[in-house]
Write a structure and sequence with these properties.
With 156 residues, the protein is an alpha/beta fold. The protein has a single domain (8-151), classed as P-loop containing nucleotide triphosphate hydrolases (Rossmann fold, 3-Layer(aba) Sandwich). 36% of the residues lie in helices and 24% in strands. It has a six-stranded mixed sheet, sandwiched between helices. Helix 1 (8-23) crosses helix 2 (36-52).
Length: 156
């Protein structure tokens, strides 16, 4: 399997999310990665794209979510009232979120199923997009089962 540059997918995802959220104002975006460092890196890329596009933003960082004392969030607020939030890996942070959800390094989590169960209602019930991005972690992962189901045409 061919590997992509470590941060390549994060850069592309950050650009797409700044356009969707900051420019077009479609929805808030929630980016959840397997660690705080990845979430911070993603938000830094979002800030750079917002700056290049001359978007007015207010950025915050290191805020604690009320439901997860160990989880950090990094937020960019746009002038249009929308926001992009970078989250660490706690599935509790995804419950009840409306808007686009991006699950970065999904297979690299010890709690894939819990993360999916927390995130899936935003797409399956409310119709918002969910993007799952990951490198493989073997055939036992939930991510691998999603890929196989897609190949068989079981998921759209």
């Amino acid at each position: 399997m061919r590997e992509v540059a470590t941060c390549g997918h994060v850069v592309v995802q950050a650009f797409e999310d700044v356009i969707d959220t900051g420019v077009e104002g479609k929805y808030d975006t929630w980016f959840s990665s397997n660690n705080e460092s990845n979430a911070r890196e993603y938000i830094d890329y979002c800030k750079k794209f917002a700056d290049v596009l001359n978007l007015t933003i207010q950025a915050t960082g290191g805020e604690e979510m009320l439901d997860a004392a160990d989880a950090q969030t990094f937020v960019i607020y746009f002038k249009n009232g929308r926001k992009i939030t970078g989250l660490s890996s706690s599935p509790n942070q995804l419950h009840g979120k409306g808007g686009k959800i991006v699950l970065d390094e999904f297979a690299r989590r010890d709690n894939e199923l819990e993360v999916w169960e927390a995130a899936s209602p935003t797409g399956l019930v409310w119709g918002f997009p969910i993007r799952i991005i990951s490198t493989h972690r073997g055939k036992q992962s939930v991510f691998y089962s999603f890929i196989k189901r897609l190949e068989r045409g079981e998921l759209a």
